[in-house]
UniProtKB/TrEMBL annotation:
The lineage of its organism: Bacteria, Bacillati, Bacillota, Bacilli, Bacillales. It is found in: Cytoplasm. Its main location: cytoplasm. This is Fructose-6-phosphate aldolase. One of its GO terms (cellular component) is cytoplasm.
Length: 229
């Protein structure tokens, strides 16, 4: 299962890459503008930080297929690394995804709200689809269930397209899509950090250390090597 950071914040990306088994970084226009930095230099910096092993997802902005294709080619030529182009699943977006598949540019169908949008994007040749879990919930839908249905549909019909669930506001949503078969999740840094947070874990770690120090007067097994009971 893929674990992807949904952010363009260089410091947060560096920190998460350092600590967690991260597979890539997703961005979108709103995420990029939050950073108030020049677009392509920022993408190049992110690409350098994450290296060629991880994927960097960059979104197009235009509405017509021919313009989307131009943007996709430009992004691929300008940003180094393992870049996947994110394209919204509109009619024009699907047309662009079909052409990009033919010329070997990998795409992710984004802004997905329904299983049929995901189906069309996968059939057009998208390597990924990104259902927007929390945004679906905010429209009184059931984001987790949409992810489950998309996963079932793509697997049942053997599409070579991964479900990268996106748009999370809480850990429970992530937990549920993981159990329901998503191939990956992309989440904001604070959500990812929350995966490991548990007061019981912290208390256990502290009490192991306390027990050890009481017995050996040391804080590390390395130093304990020199202590005789
Ligand atoms: O990757 C999609 C995502 O950025 C949308 O998330 O949190 O703005 O709903 P959000």
């Amino acid at each position: 299962m893929l674990l992807v950071i949904d952010s363009a914040n260089v410091e947060e990306i560096k920190e998460l890459i350092d600590y967690y088994p991260i597979d890539g970084v997703t961005t979108n226009p709103s995420i990029i503008v939050k950073e108030k930095l020049d677009f392509f230099p920022l993408l190049k910096e992110i690409s350098e930080i994450i290296g060629n092993e991880r994927e960097l997802f960059v979104q197009t902005l235009t509405f017509k297929a021919e313009d989307i294709i131009k943007e996709a080619k430009y992004i691929r030529e300008t940003v180094p690394g393992n870049v996947v182009v994110k394209i919204p699943v509109t009619n024009e977006g699907i047309k662009a995804i079909k052409t990009l598949k033919e010329i070997g540019i990998r795409t992710l169908g984004t802004t997905v709200y329904t299983p049929l949008q995901a189906y069309v994007a996968a059939k057009a040749g998208a390597s990924y689809v990104a259902p927007y879990v929390n945004r679906i919930d905010n429209l009184t839908g059931n984001g987790v269930n949409v992810v489950k249905e998309i996963t079932q549909l793509l697997e049942k019909h053997h599409y070579n397209c991964q479900v990268l669930a996106a748009s999370f506001k809480n850990i429970q949503q992530v937990h549920n899509v993981c159990l329901d078969g998503a191939h990956g999740v992309t989440a904001a840094p604070d959500i990812i950090k929350g995966f490991l947070t548990h007061p019981a874990t912290e208390a256990n770690v502290q009490s192991f250390s306390d027990d050890w120090q009481k017995a050996y007067g040391e804080k590390s097994v390395v130093n304990t090597d020199k202590v005789k009971m």
